[in-house]
Design a protein that fits this description.
Elements lengths: L2 H16 L2 H8 L5 H22 L7 H25 L5 H7 L3 H13 L5 H25 L1 H28 L1 H23 L9 H29 L1 H5 L5 H12 L6 H19 L5
C-alpha cells in the first residue's frame, strides 16, 4: 500500500471514530455542564497523553513547533469541544452532525493558507457545492429553530478546520500521535483548573449514559481518533483526505437514530447523500496538475 492509500485508510478510521463524538456529547451534556464536560474530557485525555509521552520517551517539541501546537490545542482540544457542547444544548446531535459537512471546506481552506497545498479549481467547486447543501439545510430548518446553536456550530467548524490543518502540517515533522499528545499536555494546566472550578457539587444525578459519553469523547474523540486522523492528513494531503469528513454525517446520523432514537428527517438524508457525491468529485481534483 502506497503512502497516499495509507493516508486515506488512516483518515477513514479517524472519521469513523469522530462520528460518535456529537452523539456522545449530546448524551453527556444531558447531565454535565458543557464547560465542565469540555474541561473534563481534555483533562482525562491530557493525563493519558502525558503518561504516553513519558512511557515512550517522546522528544520534546522545538520552539518553532510550540506556536503551531498552541493553535492545535486552542482549536481541537478547547474550541471545538466547547462550542459543540454549548451548541448541543440548543440543537439535536442529528441536526448538528450535518454541519460537520462544512469541515472539509474549512480544513482545505486552512490547508492552503497554512500548509501550502494548491488543489485544482474543480476541487473548490465540489467543496463549495457540498458546503452550500449544508447551508441550505440550516437556512431551511435550523436558523428558524435554533439560530444560536447553528452559530455555535459554525464557529466550531472554523476553529476545528484550523486545528486540523495545523496539526497535519506538524505531523509531517513531529508525528501524528505526538502532535495530539503534546497539544493535550499543553492545554492540561488550564483545563485541569477549569474542571476543578466547574466540578458539580454532586455526581449523584449523573446517569450511566452521561458517564459513557464522557468516556468516549475523552478517550476516542480527544485522543485515539486524532492519532489516525493527523497521520492520514499528513500522508494523503490535508485537502484530499480532509474530504473524508463528508462521510461523517452519514455515520453520525446512523448513530443518532440508532442509539439516541433521534428523528432523522428526509432532508437530513438528502443533504448527506448530496455531500457524499461532492466528496467523490473533490477527491478526483484534490491534487494539482
Amino acid at each position: 500500500m502506497d503512502t497516499a492509500s495509507r493516508g486515506w485508510l488512516n483518515g477513514f478510521i479517524g472519521v469513523l471514530i469522530f462520528s460518535g463524538s456529537l452523539p456522545a456529547t449530546r448524551v453527556a451534556v444531558a447531565d454535565f455542564d458543557p464547560v465542565f464536560l469540555t474541561a473534563a474530557r481534555a483533562t482525562i485525555a491530557g493525563l493519558i497523553a502525558l503518561a504516553a509521552l513519558r512511557l515512550l520517551r517522546a522528544p520534546r517539541p522545538t520552539r518553532a513547533q510550540a506556536g503551531p501546537l498552541a493553535i492545535v490545542a486552542a482549536g481541537v482540544v478547547i474550541g471545538f469541544p466547547l462550542l459543540t457542547a454549548l451548541a448541543l444544548r440548543h440543537v439535536t446531535s442529528a441536526h448538528s452532525i450535518v454541519f460537520i459537512a462544512l469541515l472539509p471546506l474549512s480544513t482545505a481552506a486552512f490547508g492552503v493558507l497554512r500548509g501550502g497545498e494548491r488543489p485544482r479549481a474543480a476541487f473548490w467547486i465540489f467543496s463549495v457545492l457540498g458546503s452550500l447543501c449544508v447551508i441550505g439545510f440550516a437556512a431551511g430548518q435550523g436558523l428558524r429553530a435554533a439560530p444560536l446553536g447553528d452559530l455555535l456550530m459554525l464557529g466550531a467548524i472554523l476553529v476545528c478546520g484550523l486545528g486540523y490543518a495545523e496539526g497535519a502540517r506538524l505531523s509531517r515533522t513531529l508525528g501524528g500521535w505526538q502532535v495530539i499528545c503534546w497539544a493535550l499536555v499543553l492545554a492540561l494546566p488550564p483545563m485541569l483548573a477549569l474542571a476543578a472550578w466547574r466540578v458539580p457539587a454532586s455526581f449523584a444525578p449523573v446517569g450511566a449514559a452521561a458517564w459513557a459519553g464522557l468516556g468516549y469523547v475523552s478517550l476516542f474523540s480527544m485522543l485515539i481518533g486524532f492519532v489516525f486522523w493527523y497521520r492520514g492528513l499528513a500522508q494523503g494531503g490535508i485537502a484530499a483526505v480532509g474530504q473524508l469528513q463528508l462521510l461523517q454525517p452519514l455515520f453520525g446520523l446512523a448513530l443518532a437514530a440508532g442509539l439516541l432514537r433521534e428523528a432523522v428527517s428526509p432532508a437530513m438524508l438528502t443533504v448527506t447523500v448530496a455531500v457524499i457525491g461532492c466528496v467523490a468529485g473533490a477527491r478526483r481534483f484534490s491534487r494539482p496538475r
